[in-house]
Design brief:
Length: about 80
């Protein structure tokens, strides 16, 4: 299952990204990865952006939705 969530507002003809969560899990409901910008893991260089893997959290920049879809497609086989 791939779930894509973004909070976006338009202000003065500008699109502003407020928050995001891109969550991918396998058939056993185990997390494969989740990208988000929840403000925790302040020690990461890319704070608040990060990626959850099954056993750890890593620093990453916000990926595009298309990149997330492609990553999930490749991992799903």
């Amino acid at each position: 299952m791939l779930e894509l969530n973004e909070a976006i507002i338009s202000k003065e003809n500008q699109i502003m990204h407020i928050g995001y969560r891109y969550h991918f899990q396998d058939r056993k409901n185990s997390v494969v990865f989740r990208y988000d910008n929840t403000p925790h893991f302040q020690e990461l260089d890319t704070y608040p952006h990060h990626k959850h893997l099954s056993e750890r959290v890593v620093a990453v920049d916000q990926p595009t939705i298309l990149d997330v879809i492609e990553e999930a497609r490749l991992l799903a086989g």
